Amino acid sequence: MKIYIGSDHGGFDLKQELLGSLSALGTSLGKSFEFKDLGCYTSESVNYPDLAKLVCESVLDDYKKLPHFTASEDALSYESVGILFCGSGQGMAMKANKYQQIRAGLCWNSEITTLAREHNNANILCLPGRYINSPVALEMVRIFLTTPFAKGRHSIRVDKIANTI
Ligand code: RB5
Asked: Which of 47, 86, 116, 130 has its CA 20 to 30 Å from the CA of residue 136?
């Protein structure tokens, strides 16, 4: 599975701390994850929508190679997801959710992350770099990458998210 990662300066420190632990996470889960850090690469101030755009468009480019796409099919089965970090996680989520096939969840603990996958079939995890520490974030990433979409009644609801109003 490809995991595209991006942050602004507000999420940079947490992103860097997590990058060191992510390959071990893949090994411990017995899964082959390909983590791609799309920046930012320093703590210099940048605009978070630019990084959200890079990550979302990378995920969506991978989706284009697939024969079909439905919002209610488990996003993990598409083998391409994203993780975005900013100070609050909020701006990244707002930008990412502008893309019709993206469901970005702003999460701050394990339970919310589980629900973002089980109920909302999130394909982007947004993390608030200034409000959570790296052990908490690592556990949330583990949950995000391993929790299946529950389908059933939730399929109807995520299909409705994809519908334009
Ligand atoms: C940057 O100062 C901050 O606004 C950004 O990281 C994020 O929190 C935006 O939502």
From this structure: 47
Q: Order across the sheet with 80-86: list the strands.
A: 34-37, 2-7, 80-86, 124-128, 104-106
Domains parsed from the chain with CATH numbers = 2-161 (3.40.1400.10)
Residue to substitute in 43, 92, 132 for testing ligand 1 pocket (most ligand atoms within 8 angstroms of CB): 92
- For 24-42, what is each residue's pLDDT tens digit? 999 999 998 999 999 999 9
Residue type, position 33, single letter? F
80: CA distance to ligand 1 center in Å?
25
Q: Which of 9, 68, 119, 154 is catalytic?
A: 119
For the whole model, what pTM was predicted?
A: 0.97
